[in-house]
């Protein structure tokens, strides 16, 4: 028997769920802000610092190309780090909450006991 909507609201208001949200937000907000700032810096440099972005580093590779490629690298690093963070910190908390919901949904109801 699935858990009731009231049970999900109870879990949503629980301390464990609050801890899960806090853990996620502690990772997601700073990482997102840092990435957006990094991307905005790249866009602004591309638009307004053309001479700087055109500096040749090796052969035909210039600063703009290197920073553009680093955008991809940083995206993959963030994805890898989030997967690692989630496996270590988020998933155990989510599993605890899931087990609690699952146990309450499979527990015998007291209504049928006379």
From TrEMBL:
Annotated keywords: Membrane, Transmembrane, Transmembrane helix
Transmembrane segments: 27-49, 61-83
Name of the protein: Membrane protein
Any one Pfam family match given in the protein's UniProt record, by short name: DUF485
InterPro entries with a match to the protein in the record: DUF485
Origin: domain of life: Bacteria
């Amino acid at each position: 028997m699935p858990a009731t909507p009231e049970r999900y609201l109870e879990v949503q208001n629980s301390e464990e769920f609050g801890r899960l949200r806090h853990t996620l937000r502690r990772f997601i907000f700073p990482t997102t802000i840092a990435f957006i700032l990094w991307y905005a810096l790249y866009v602004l440099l591309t638009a307004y610092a053309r001479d700087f972005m055109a500096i040749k580093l090796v052969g035909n590779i210039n600063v703009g190309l290197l920073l553009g490629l680093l955008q991809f690298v940083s995206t993959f690093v963030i994805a890898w780090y989030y997967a690692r963070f989630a496996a270590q910190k988020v998933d155990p908390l989510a599993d605890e909450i899931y087990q609690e919901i699952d146990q309450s949904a499979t527990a015998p109801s007291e209504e049928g006991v006379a």
